[in-house]
UniProtKB/TrEMBL annotation:
Keyword match RNA-binding: no
Protein name: Anhydrotetracycline monooxygenase
Domain FAD-binding: 3-352
Highest taxon of source: Bacteria
Molecular function per GO: anhydrotetracycline monooxygenase activity; FAD binding
């Protein structure tokens, strides 16, 4: 009997396993594939863009050096980036100009060793996470396909290959076609696809016929970023049957139509398809079963958001589920998972739909495209799109008066050289008390196993006297120069439960 069984050892399941393992839970991960390696996880197919919020999650758990190194980045992870801008991203294939981003208007941004974006690949992400998870005692079993899930009020059971795997909680991190979601009866609602997307490793007879970069065309979009690799979107209503393997003839005919060229493919090494079907579970919890990542929401990969959304789910859920397992969660804590993450997922689905809407063939969408292109050409427009892509826009509705409450905490830097990000490696919440009186110490100290109290002056305190940060890096309380102690104590009880006896 484990505390938690996670179905699926993709990036989200592994991230969640690390969070639970860090908090001392016993965790079993069941993965259908017999081994973690796949050509679709390595470059170019597995290439993924991580947002600042996701990179920040790795940074806070001390995994940034491993992630940078596995992603082939040679830079010194200890050196804070003076600028948040790197590979700023795109909207429906319209590239952002990093020079136009108004860094000063980004809410509460401070320089940090964690870059605001990172180009990596699934293999790197999963390797870093599975090594950490194993080091924390998580049991990861490959070649175990879960075929049934049952639950009662005390726990849930995963069934696979004639074996049963009981646990107090079960989390489906088993991707877009989630078996757990279907078996546990989670309603899944949304919109049907407009296009079929293709990602392919090919030999092109005369590659110069296709320009590098993103290309919106009257028939869809094609994308050439790496030699030998192409992606394209064909507005066929998502008609291509994904259970079929696309042939060379099919790929060439779609590519010719979408690109408007007479390009010839001489060989297809590997190809995969996807759509922009956009669906979301109406709740992320049914009794003892929860969902995270693509199991809870699917949408097109446009603008690279799915993995970031899933890592956000795992970071949000991990400490809440751990506190519930260990018996010190305040009343209702676990239900805040759906309440906080579902609106973020819904917004990402709409962001994806908005991109599809401006890419559709025809004069109306092309007219909107022109308007969006003009807006993205402005400083405000670029900054707006960058905030959406980077995750900087996310603010949970947690009440509270301070504008920082509900946001991802800035990487506050203390006079002694320590940074907030460094202080979060053990998975506890953090109180930073910049006030001379250190009046918050007693309330924090009597929950020491869940909350780290740190007093001292900050190099740039952003006008704050003190700040209370959850284990997932979200600010739940903040105050000006003279902290309001009763308000702080109420926030500590609300998020961290009763004092330790
Ligand atoms: C072409 C493309 C480009 C993308 N680019 C980006 C990007 O740049 N940025 C971004 O943020 N996102 C991107 N995404 C989306 C991103 O890849 C996904 O959102 C992310 O991989 C989801 O992770 P996950 O762990 O939830 O699911 P998955 O990665 O799908 O992992 C699920 C795991 O569960 C296992 N599993 C399934 N069923 C069972 C079962 N019954 N029993 C046991 N195990 C099971 C699977 O084998 C798999 O290992 C892209 C997607 C595509 C298709």
């Amino acid at each position: 009997m484990h505390d938690v069984v996670i179905v699926g050892a993709g990036p989200v399941g592994l991230f969640l396993a690390c969070e639970l393992g860090l908090a001392g839970c016993s965790v079993l991960v069941l993965e259908r594939e017999p081994q973690p390696q796949s050509p679709f996880k390595a470059e170019p197919f597995g290439m993924r863009g991580l947002s600042g919020a996701s990179v920040g999650a790795f940074y806070r758990r001390g995994l940034l050096p491993q992630l940078l190194s596995a992603s082939g980045m040679s830079e010194d992870p200890g050196a804070p980036t003076a600028s948040p801008l790197r590979g700023a991203g795109h909207f429906a294939g319209m590239m952002l100009d990093p020079a136009r981003i108004d860094v000063d208007s980004l809410p509460y941004w401070l320089p940090s060793p964690a870059p605001r974006s990172l180009r990596t690949h699934l293999e790197a992400v999963e390797t870093v996470l599975s090594e950490r998870a194993s080091g924390l005692g998580v049991d990861i079993r490959y070649g175990v396909a879960v075929t049934d899930v049952t639950q009662n009020e005390r726990g849930a059971v995963a069934h696979a290959g004639g074996h049963t795997y009981p646990a107090r909680w079960l989390v489906g991190c088993d991707g877009g076609r989630s078996t757990v979601r279907k078996l546990a009866g989670f309603p899944f609602e949304g919109t049907e696809p407009q296009f079929t997307g293709y990602s392919m490793q090919v030999t092109v007879a005369v590659p110069e016929k296709l320009d590098f970069g993103f290309h919106l065309t009257p028939q869809g979009m094609y994308l050439r970023l790496l030699p030998g690799h192409l992606a394209m979107m064909d507005f066929d209503g998502g008609a291509f049957d994904r259970s079929r393997q696309p042939t060379l003839d099919h790929l060439q005919s779609v590519l010719r139509r979408v690109s408007g060229t007479d390009v010839t493919l001489s060989e297809v090494q590997l190809a995969t398809t996807f759509t922009d079907r956009a669906m979301q579970a109406t709740t992320y919890r049914q009794g003892r079963v929860l969902l995270a990542g693509d199991a809870a929401h699917i949408h097109s990969p446009l603008g690279g958001q799915g993995l970031n959304l899933g890592i956000g789910d795992a970071m949000n859920l991990g400490w809440k589920l751990a506190a519930t397992v260990r018996g010190h969660a305040p009343q209702g804590l676990l239900d805040t998972y759906t309440r906080e993450r579902r609106p973020v997922g819904a917004a990402v689905l709409d962001w994806s739909r908005a991109q599809v809407a401006v890419m559709r063939p025809g004069p109306y969408a092309q007219a909107v495209q022109g308007v969006v292109r003009d807006l993205i050409g402005t400083r405000d427009g670029t900054t707006y799109v960058f905030e959406r892509i980077s995750g900087a826009w996310i603010r949970y509705d947690l009440g509270g008066e301070h504008p920082l409450v509900g946001r991802d905490a800035p990487d506050l830097h203390l006079e002694d050289g320590s940074r907030l990000g460094d202080l979060m490696g053990d998975g506890r919440g953090v109180v930073l008390d910049f006030s001379a009186e250190q009046s918050l110490r007693p309330a924090a100290k009597n929950r020491e196993s869940r909350l780290r109290y740190v007093a001292g002056a900050a190099r740039n305190d952003l006008g704050l006297g003190a700040v209370l940060v959850r284990p997932d890096g979200v600010v739940v309380w903040a105050d000006g120069r003279t902290p309001d102690r009763p308000a702080f104590e109420a926030a500590v009880s609300e998020w961290f439960g009763d004092p330790e006896s």
